[in-house]
Specification:
Structural class: mainly beta
Strand order of the largest sheet: 4-1-6-5-8-9
Order of helices and strands: EEEEHEEEHHEE
Radius of gyration: 16 Å
Number of helices: 3
Length: about 160
């Protein structure tokens, strides 16, 4: 069932890196990404932060537990001159090295660990993945800072900050 997301979208994708320096990538069963390598991704849901959303999406699509280390980029565009399509690109660590990939077959054709060097030149990698894979994401990462207690005046129930240290 397709949800009405309005005309301003906020998505997330996760670069989950394993101990061998490989990235977790998926091939979707639908849309313009069908059959192309991309990062596990999805939309931020109501009442959810971007870090929570990426952990959820990675788990849903691949069965892999991860945790957010930082923000490596932000993709933004406008679809058909009317939909603002925005995506936070987050760098994540794998929670347990021994976990096996479990593909969510409704959305994902396949998922694998592939080196960024290979992804940067693979004709099946989508354009954003190729560009991200060409860069040193760890060196340029904006760090994730949690456990911040904001002023009560705004009524935050969750609050995190991404900042270059």
């Amino acid at each position: 069932m397709k949800k009405d997301r309005g005309k301003v979208w906020l998505g997330v994708c996760g670069i989950v890196e394993n101990d061998n320096g490989e990235w977790l990538v998926v091939k979707k069963t639908y849309s313009g990404l069908k059959g192309r390598w991309s990062l596990p991704a999805g939309f931020v849901q109501e009442g959810e932060t971007i870090d929570e959303a990426v952990v959820r999406e990675v788990k849903e699509e691949t069965g892999i537990d991860c945790y957010v280390k930082g923000l490596v980029g932000f993709r933004t565009g406008v679809i058909r001159s009317e939909i603002s399509d925005n995506m936070a690109i987050l760098y994540c660590g794998q929670a347990e090295a021994s976990q096996s990939i479990i593909v969510q077959e409704r959305e994902i054709l396949e998922a694998h660990w592939i080196s960024p060097k290979q992804l940067a030149v693979d004709e099946l990698s989508n354009i954003m993945l190729k560009e991200v894979a060409r860069n040193d994401v760890k060196k340029n990462m904006i760090d994730f800072v949690d456990n911040i207690i904001p002023e009560e005046i705004f009524g935050y129930t969750q609050y995190n900050l991404f900042i270059k240290k």
